[in-house]
Amino acid sequence: MPAEPHRALLVFLDGVGIGPADPEANPFAAAHLPRIRELLGGRLPVAEALDGGPVVAERAVLVAADATLGIDGIPQSGTGQTTLLTGRNAAALYGRHFGPWVPTGLREMLAAENLLARARAGGLVAAFANAYPVALIEADPRIFRRPAAPPLAARAAGVLTRDVPQLAAGEAVASSITNHRWRERTAEVPAVTAEQAGRNLAAIAAAAHVTLFAHYDTDHAGHRGGMEGAVAALERVDAFLGGLAGALAPDTLLVVSSDHGNVEDVREGHTLNPVPVLALGPGREALAERIRSIADVTPAILALLGIEPTTP
């Protein structure tokens, strides 16, 4: 394995925090997560595992990242995702935490300074791995009025390009990981397991320098799924990460992170908990050393790929 990464893949999991290992409240303590346990040397992303600092295992490093950003109130998706993807404290810039979509006043900054746009400006190949109904947006731009940060960033970077044909060919990944929602709308899309979706993402990442994939079902499960739904969501992610890690190119740094806590405590909605930053591959320990908050993730990835920071 090379000492420095040649490529980077950021997997965004919406609404995943680090909470106490209470099986009555935290699905991480109740779910069967063999791939995550293997990556972390038998541990899980729960508060007790990180009491002594980062988890450093043979293949991966796990650190906790602050998601409150020094702003009062409960962290939200719009500002949290914007912060994660730009390295700018979007909650401070906006004056408060805001979600679920990116507020209008932050969209220009997100468009110019997001991970994918910065990579392309630095001469690198960027990719957004998610399948997205591009044709529907072109037919009715109002669909994009209240966008999440990942597709907005991808559109600004000119890489919101994967739709039904790419998903059918295994050259895109559904935001839900498996293709079940797309299959409700079209017979063109085949069924795919979470493991195969992970392998497909690894192949996409091998063809670019910087790749982003976004998954939202973890946050949905935290809001509405109860313990059963949250466990199912995490077990799907576990299988997905297992397929991805097993197929990841040896020159690729994988970073898995989130925007705010939620699913780790099914008794309430969003939380004040820190979020996990899981790093696998070359440069993982160097990245982990740079992380204090979610604002550090994108700058750390870009720095390891040789992209200079911007001046706010």
Automatic annotation (TrEMBL):
Transmembrane segments: none annotated. It holds the Pfam family Metalloenzyme. GO terms for molecular function: magnesium ion binding; phosphopentomutase activity. Residues 202-308 form the Metalloenzyme domain. Keywords: Manganese, Metal-binding. GO terms for cellular component: cytosol. GO terms for biological process: metabolic compound salvage; nucleotide metabolic process. SUPFAM superfamilies: Alkaline phosphatase-like. PANTHER family: PHOSPHOPENTOMUTASE. Belongs to the phosphopentomutase family. This is Phosphoglyceromutase. It comes from uncultured Gemmatimonadota bacterium. The lineage of its organism: Bacteria, Pseudomonadati, Gemmatimonadota, environmental samples.
